Amino acid sequence: MPSSAALALMLTLATPGTMQFDLSATAPERQHRYEMGGHGIEPGDSEKGFRFSVALPEGDYRVTLTLGDRRAAGDTTVKAEARRLMLRNIVTAKGQFVTRSFLVTIRTPALPPPPANAPGGSAVRIDARDAREATWDEKLTLEFLGTPQVASLRIEPASAPTIFLAGDSTVTDQYAEPAASWGQMLPALLDDRIIVANHAKSGETLKSFLTNLRFDKLLSTMKPGDWLFIQFGHNDQKREWPQTYVAPDSTYPAYVRAYIAEARRRGAHPVLVTSPERRNFDAQGRIIDTLGDYASAVRKLAAEEQVRLIDLNADSRAIYEALGVDRAPAAFNDGGRDKTHHNNYGAWLLASAVAQRIRDTIPALAPHVTAPAFAPTKPPSITQVVIAPSLIESDQRPAGN
Questions:
Q1: Which of the listed residues 159, 180, 204 is the one where a domain comes to its end?
Q2: Are 11 and 42 contained in the same domain?
Q3: What is the pLDDT of residue 6?
Q4: Which of 27, 169, 198, 263 sits in a 20 to 30 Å window from 182, CA-based?
Q5: Which among 108, 106, 110 is positioned nearest to 63, based on CA atoms?
Q6: Contacts with 167 (C-beta within 8 Å, 6 or more apart), sequence order
Q7: 362 and 351 in one domain?
Q8: 265 and 139 together in one domain
Q9: Do 204 and 263 belong to one domain?
């Protein structure tokens, strides 16, 4: 016997596979708390916003929102799953309503089990931190922030080209404020005809991304015409991690070549991304090179394999030097004490650089870029990049710091 929440969910079906919810401030659904297998408000809602979840099977979905209210003005920011930025600062006047849509993917740790006696696993090896996130559960979680005014929500299955992201903590969807990474900002800089599936994980390396079965999970849903953005280096260069260390002149490019080959075998397009630099200035105000051998290896490999290149290492250096020694810490996690990981502002700057490189160098993806033109040597100030903070906070630094 389905729960009352599940029954309410079934009754919202406007067409097969489509769900419609009334999320206006006084709607019963807006007051309903989430129950397993149903839909409703997650714990932790406050004057800053609320999270609304819907139990759904793994897959890709189009979310269509009507934003606005007859009685009040609004300024609505929308994030999905683990703080993936989908819509930013949608302003509505009192009595005004606007419609916005985006594509989102949700996943669980489950993998197609290998045949009997074959090596492999039936699930991604997630850790305790993963288990706390909204990324790996059997529901879609949307976070409405700022001064949210949400009239209605429609969810329907979708199919579209996907940009898969494979990488480490500088790419992943950081689950709690104040940390953030460029991968979780990218969806807000693209249109609603392409999906961003961020499989990056803090602390991962080229080797551990394989052994933890994260690459298997990514490949399990990859289809012809999709894209695979590959960015590793920060953790791969750590000699103190002997099981996952790879040398920039031999094993590092060899492993990246394997990723490229796996994408091509499935008809997808690999893209190489050089790792963003750490924020270490010399006496002349220039960024000290800590990743150069690995960035150079990626550039060389892109030329040899005829793969598109996004040189985020070069762009990050330009951004930090343009901000300068005094202003650059404002783009980083932990009040600037963290010199590797970013906050919302810094993640937005790096994602803007990635979006601009897509526009400039990948003709097939360029039409999907909606971000304004971005020059790394002239980054906008922090007052120009306002991103409503999420409800979940943590003082724990990303793994691999």
A1: 159
A2: yes
A3: 39
A4: 263
A5: 106
A6: 183, 200, 204, 229, 230, 231, 232, 273
A7: yes
A8: no
A9: yes
What are the structure tokens assigned to 160, written together?
């579209």
d(CA 344, CA 348): 6
For the residues 184-201, what does the mean pLDDT come to?
98
Q: How far apart are the first and last CA of the chain?
A: 48
Compute CA distances 107 → 58, 130, 221, 393, whole Å. 5, 12, 10, 23
* Res 386 pLDDT > 80: yes
pLDDT at 25: 85
**Residues 113, 228, 187, CA angle at the centre, nearest 5°?**
105
Higher pLDDT, 12 or 357: 357
Q: pLDDT tens digit string along 305-325?
A: 999 999 999 999 999 999 999
pLDDT at 26 over 90: no
Residues 123 and 180 both lie in one domain = no
Place of tokens 């803007």: 352
Whether residues 90 and 235 fall in one domain: no
The stretch 242-255 carries a mean pLDDT of: 97
Structural domain that includes position 154? 1-159
For residue 106, what is the domain's CATH number?
Answer: 2.60.120
End residue of a domain, out of 159, 194, 225:
159
Q: How, if at all, do strands 162-167 and 227-231 pair?
A: parallel
Is 115 exposed, middle or buried (CB count within 10 Å of its CB: 0-12, 13-18, 19+)? exposed
**For residues 333 and 350, what is the distance between their CA atoms, to the nearest angstrom?**
14
Could you identify the residue written with the tokens 């979780």?
Answer: 184
Supply the mean pLDDT for the chain: 94
Beta strands 269-273 and 227-231, pairing class: parallel
- Same domain? 35 vs 152: yes
Residue 199: CATH number of its domain = 3.40.50.1110
Please tell me the predicted confidence (pLDDT) of residue 401: 66
Say yes or no: 138 and 285 in one domain: no
Cis peptide before 178 (omega within 30 of 0): yes
